Amino acid sequence: MEARKNPVYLRSIAAAVKEFRAALDEFLELHVRNEGPGGWGGIARGIAPAVLPREGVEPDEIERLRAKVSRLSGLAGAAVGLTNTWVKVQGVGVVDPIAAWQTITQPKPVLEAPDVLGACDQALGRLDGLILEAEAEMPPTVGAAAMHPVVWGAAARLWRDGHFREAVAGAAESVVMMVKSRTKRFDLAATPLWQEIFSDRPPQPGKPRLRWPGDPADQDVSTMNSGLRFLAPGIQMTIRNNAAHGVGELAEQAALERLAALSLLARWVDECDLNEAT
């Protein structure tokens, strides 16, 4: 998913910007701003650093906070590109205010503290707007954990580790084992199993059938039985076989759609009656 359209990612970037700004405020408390009234009177402004250490502050404490702000600037840096909050500096050009924050402590500073703080505030406002826009455009999501327990139970651990193809293959195998246990047809491979249990032939001794509940003469019931006869083997051949024998990782969305198909099939199997020969 594109970063600008992913609200979870945008929130994580906004949180990183807030942490960076808070740490920078803490760092600035140890300094006096060289910017006129309230600072050092603007001594050699533009030549001397934009902030100067307060008298009596331990250098080790300043360095500790400098390292903290630098680390957090790395986490927050993506916000500038996402929100276009660059700072235009005369004679220099366009500057990334988060990446270049340390220039406020250096001679001939490119930026001053208000430039960095203001850019953070602006970025946070634009991120809020992007989050609202992304949430409005997001399609309804499918809850993987709400799928049939046989499907998600087999897929969950592999899914959380990013092994999407293996998760689909494992879920498909579990659905087959569920059906074998219910029908006691351990003598069949997966595809023939589906063909047998949904066959339109009457059940025989040792060969039960799964049937959609209701009057077999009812059109809706008949349609479901006919559909399952083709759907179940088709899912086996197109989803399970491809997941088990395919090469390369499945994309998360593609894997999720396959799990959804397996989950639907498993729920329909649960709803079917088991017809055995008398």
TrEMBL record:
Superkingdom of source: Bacteria
Segments forming domain Conserved hypothetical protein CHP02391: 147-269
InterPro entries linked: CHP02391
Protein's name according to its UniProt entry: Conserved hypothetical protein CHP02391 domain-containing protein
